[in-house]
Design goal:
Length: 426
């Protein structure tokens, strides 16, 4: 059984020339040249739902277009494995929860199985997140350089679980984190590099959509497009706090009775907790006709998410932990007023009070939403500054540049770009 390959389609770097600066495009070309024909493998737990899938669908075709032979494979797992990996995810984000001996065995067993199923030889193997992090133990020879790419908030990890994973993480040749604060303070790590993820401005999720088209799409979901709408787009996950969003919205409605709420969340197949949390969210909404709880099961795909973000008077991301928060980037890119939890990578994206609002509680979330609804013009000006901030930092060409720089570094070609990304320098 070979690991399932994901078909990512085709993208052309040249299409991004109008979005990225000349300097950046030149850098990409220069860094790609010595890497022509190199073989790259991305390993992840799912090709659907959540940030990793979102990033890979753009990054991989662009790596291909830059001349690297790049493929993406998804590891195989049953519920027993994904229950354990979700527990690992939660513990790494701070939940005080040990892994039992049996859970540790399940994790090791599926990683070994997947490693044994891996075919081919690669110059660079990129392992996304903890789920496939132990494959290296049994498949080292399949890759010349192994890189662990962490997408989660590792600022306050539960030690037992982090220490369980560290021997595997440490046997990679490099590890990449969104933020310096996430690099584990443990001497046994490989070289650590820091760069944030990025969104694809040309993907259906983010491409320009007129207000009329967005309203037309939302009307089909029963939204009253003449009344203001607040939206949160996120998986149904305790760290995303959809229940807190409902509470905040109820406070806002006391002052703005016309306001509606949409909670848009996909069901990732590696997230067994999702259904439970979805049901809890539906229960919390208590049948209120102005709350719309939608998911991919209602045919909400990328274009629909785009429409919800474009149309909303305010977008919320009330996370309690957040690796980076691509939904924040997406909403800022669309120039939407943004209210988000003061956590993780979100604080790298929003300057509180200038380009959006950072909040710590249901009450402050409601206050910020009221400020936006009271003065939509001012909120819009702030959001447009947020868009400019995203343009310079969080769009795909920059992400591609960073990966190419690291590949060069691992191949012994120490460019100035890779030195800048090395966490040790900070
Ligand atoms: N997403 C989506 N539909 C949904 C929920 C999420 O397309 O119903 C996308 C969202 O637009 C974003 C990604 O999934 O691109 C979530 O990434 P983020 O970094 O915000 O959070 P993660 O899920 O990785 O924790």
């Amino acid at each position: 059984m070979q690991l399932q390959q994901v078909n990512v389609g085709h993208k052309a770097l040249a299409d991004y020339a109008t979005i990225a600066t000349r300097g950046l495009m030149d850098q990409i070309r220069g860094l790609a040249e010595p890497l022509a024909g190199k073989r790259v493998l991305h390993l992840s737990a799912t090709a659907f739902g959540g940030g990793v899938a979102e990033i890979n669908y753009t990054l991989i075709p662009l790596m291909q277009d830059a001349g690297l032979e790049t493929e993406w494979r998804v590891i195989h797992g049953e519920d027993e494995f994904f229950d354990v990996t979700k527990a690992i995810h939660n513990a790494l984000q701070g939940q005080a929860r040990d892994l039992t001996r049996e859970e540790q065995d399940i994790f090791g067993r599926y990683n070994r199985m997947n490693a044994e199923a891996l075919e081919g030889e690669f110059d660079f193997v990129i392992v996304h997140d903890p789920q496939p992090a132990a494959m290296i133990e049994h498949a080292r020879s399949a890759g010349r350089h192994w890189i662990w790419r962490c997408h989660i908030d590792l600022s306050t990890p539960h030690r037992q679980v982090l220490e369980f994973l560290l021997p595997w993480i440490g046997s990679h040749d490099a590890a990449v984190f969104h933020r310096r604060e996430y690099v584990p303070s443990n001497g046994h790590l490989p070289g650590a590099y820091i760069w944030p993820p990025a969104i694809d401005p040309l993907a259906p999720k983010n491409m320009a959509l007129s207000p009329e088209d967005a309203a037309y799409i939302l009307d089909q979901f029963g939204i009253d497009v003449e009344r203001p709408l607040i939206t949160q787009v996120s998986r149904f996950d305790p760290w995303k706090d959809p229940l807190g969003v409902i509470e905040a919205w109820r406070l806002v409605r006391a002052r703005h009775p016309e306001v509606q709420l949409a909670l848009v969340g996909s069901m990732a197949h590696d997230d067994p907790e999702g259904w439970d949390y979805y049901n809890r969210t539906v229960a919390a909404a208590a049948g209120d006709e102005d709350i719309f709880i939608l998911s991919n099961l209602n045919n909400v795909g990328s274009v629909e998410v785009n429409a919800f973000q474009v149309h909303s008077a305010a977008v919320v991301q009330k996370s309690i932990r957040e690796g980076f928060g691509l939904t924040v980037t997406e909403a800022l890119w669309k120039g939407r007023p943004m209210v988000a939890g003061r956590v993780g990578g979100i604080v790298d994206q929003i300057q509180d009070g200038d380009t959006g609002f950072l909040v710590d509680s249901v009450e402050t979330c409601a206050d910020a939403l009221n400020v936006i609804l009271d003065d939509p013009q001012r909120a819009r000006q702030m959001a447009l500054r947020g868009k400019e901030f995203v343009r310079g930092r969080f769009l795909t060409p920059r992400l591609l540049r960073d990966w190419l720089a690291l590949f060069n570094g691992l191949n012994g070609n120490e460019t100035s770009e890779v030195r800048e990304l090395a966490a040790a320098a900070g």
